[in-house]
TrEMBL record:
Membrane is among the record's keywords: yes
Major localization class: membrane
Lineage: Bacteria, Bacillati, Actinomycetota, Actinomycetes, Micrococcales
TM helices/strands, residue ranges: 6-23, 35-58, 78-96
Name of protein: Lycopene cyclase domain-containing protein
Membrane topology: Multi-pass membrane protein
Keyword Endoplasmic reticulum: no
Amino acid sequence: MTYPLILLPFLLLTIIVTAASATRPRFAQRMRASAWTAGVLVLLTAVFDNVMIAVNLFSYPPEHLSGLRIGLAPLEDFAYPVCAAFLVPAIFSLVSPRRKSA
């Protein structure tokens, strides 16, 4: 189960940074957009990872996986796009200067 352990820092970082961005403007709107984006990315990952695995472009050693799959794609493959969908906007909101109220 190497791959699930590799994912833990990414998941924790995503949770921490996203929670830290909760004080920034339009958090709820950003979370809705991130959720929609994550859904689309998961769908695309499901389609294309399954195709690439089916035509033997790559494979995963089973001893390093959790064993959970969506089709041929290991569940671990879906964590990266989900993290990106939430982490990138959260980081952007944190590094963007706050606008002063007029």
